[in-house]
Structure formats: structure tokens, C-alpha cells
TrEMBL record:
It comes from Stylosanthes scabra. InterPro entries: PPPDE_dom, PPPDE_sf. Keywords: Hydrolase, Protease. This is PPPDE domain-containing protein. The keyword Hydrolase applies. Residues 2-143 form the PPPDE domain. The keyword Protease applies. Residues 180-254 are annotated as: Disordered. Belongs to the DeSI family. It holds the Pfam family Peptidase_C97. PROSITE patterns: PPPDE (PS51858). Residues 211-223 have a biased composition (Polar residues).
């Protein structure tokens, strides 16, 4: 068994001394002062004097090695012993060959697939604990914020589409009401009278549901009644209120 060591750097490869100094200060405040995290590069050392990490390149693998603690692109901060691996040196080399194929340099993403994600994957295959949460917390927070923003945008687009569709249905409904006022209610309207009585509440609900879902009214009231397996019964004109209740009750029981 051998130690697995995580080497951690402040990310100071911006090309601007002022920006690099700001990043170092941010890391001191948020990691050293508050303990939340910072902007870090990491690499894993196992067997030998080299560390292994991942970065962007246009062609080939993004997996690379350099002498431990000596990456010239960043400012060295500290190391952490993550544990001991039971993998042999032969197995470690096999894992690195697999990772080299699976992590091409062009797939690098600052938030979703960076050097810290690579080290997490490497440590998992070595059978040791993953990186402490603070090492990659800023990237994870940024990735979550991006996903939330993207989902919100999708929901807003869906809501806009639904509002437009509902507006079209409402417009057709208003136009229909206007035509009813001018020309009288058409035979298929839920408010039309047949034999002096009004259409049943169940038929009216069916008519409204059909209008909302299809954007059009049933061609005739009898079609909507047959689709629901129900045909409203009209009581004789001479019956009193009790006869109306009996008729209504018997029609709902049928």
C-alpha cells in the first residue's frame, strides 16, 4: 500500500499580476478565514515523484503529469494525504491509461469538468476518499447556479407558450360570445335551449373542457352528450319543483 497525496495550488495563471493577487486574497479570505473554499488547482500523487492532473488542450488527452508541487502555472498552497491505496503500481498505470482515454483535453469545462473533478475520479478508482468539499466548492456552486438559470429560462419559455395558447383560446371564446349576441346562440352553444330547458351542468363542463383542449366547440350538443355517455332529460313543462328534483336525480343515477 502507498500514500495518495493531493497537491493544491492557488489558480494564478490569468496573465495579470493584479488578477492573480486578487485570487490569492480571495482564497485567503474564503478558505483560510471562513473555511468555505476558493479558486484552486489540484493534482494527485501516487507511486513516484510526479503528480497527475487534467487541463485543456485542443487535441489528445487532457491528463498530464509534472513533478509534485512544482506546476509552474500556479502558486503552490498545500498538500493533503487522502489515504492509502491497495492498488499496485501496475493497476495505477492501468487506471491512468483509462483516464487518459476518457478525459480528452477538449472536454475540459471550468465548472463541470475541471482538474478537481478529474482528481475526484482518480481518487475514487484508487479507493481513497475524494477531495475535501472546499477544494471545488466554487465550481460546484457556479455549475448549480448555471443549471438553475438554464431551467428557469426553459420554464419561462414554456410559460410564454402557454400564455399565448390560452390567449388564442380566450379570443376565440370572446368572438363566439360576440357572434351569439349579434345572431343569437347557435344550436351547439352550452346556453342553447332545447324544448324550453337549459343544457345540463355536465354538458356545459364538457363543452368548456373541449373548447380549452382543442380550441373548438363541439359541432353539436348531441355529440358532446354522446361522448360523455349522458343525454340530459327535460322534465314535462307542467310538473312542479318536486318532479324536477326526481327527474334530475334519476338522470344522474342512470
Amino acid at each position: 500500500m502507498t500514500d495518495v497525496i493531493l497537491h493544491i495550488y492557488d489558480v494564478t495563471n490569468s496573465g495579470s499580476e493584479k488578477t492573480n493577487s486578487t485570487i490569492v486574497q480571495i482564497n485567503k479570505i474564503f478558505k483560510d478565514g471562513i473555511g468555505i473554499g476558493g479558486i484552486f488547482h489540484s493534482a494527485v500523487q501516487v507511486y513516484g515523484e510526479d503528480e497527475w492532473s487534467f487541463g485543456f488542450c485542443e487535441q489528445g488527452t487532457g491528463v498530464f503529469s509534472c513533478p509534485s508541487g512544482k506546476n509552474p502555472m500556479y502558486t503552490y498552497r498545500e498538500f493533503i494525504v487522502l489515504g492509502k491505496t491497495s492498488c499496485s503500481i501496475f493497476k495505477v498505470n492501468q487506471i491512468l491509461r483509462e483516464l487518459s482515454r476518457e478525459w480528452p483535453g477538449c472536454s475540459y469545462d471550468l465548472l463541470a469538468k475541471n482538474c478537481n473533478h478529474f482528481c475526484d475520479e482518480f481518487c475514487e478508482r484508487l479507493g481513497v476518499p475524494k477531495l475535501p468539499g472546499w477544494v471545488n466548492r466554487f465550481a460546484n456552486a457556479g455549475d448549480t447556479a448555471f443549471a438553475v438559470a438554464e431551467n428557469t429560462a426553459v420554464r419561462l419559455r414554456q410559460a410564454k407558450t402557454e400564455v399565448v395558447s390560452a390567449s388564442k383560446v380566450a379570443l376565440r371564446f370572446i368572438v363566439g360570445l360576440t357572434n351569439n349576441v349579434r345572431n343569437g346562440p347557435p344550436p351547439e352553444s352550452p346556453n342553447s335551449n332545447r324544448g324550453g330547458g337549459s343544457a345540463s351542468p355536465r354538458f356545459q363542463a364538457s363543452w368548456l373542457k373541449n373548447m380549452i383542449t382543442t380550441g373548438a366547440k363541439p359541432s353539436t350538443s348531441s355529440e358532446a352528450e354522446n361522448e360523455n355517455g349522458f343525454e340530459p332529460r327535460q322534465p314535462p313543462a307542467h310538473e312542479d319543483d318536486r318532479a324536477l328534483l326526481r327527474s334530475s336525480s334519476s338522470s344522474h343515477d342512470s
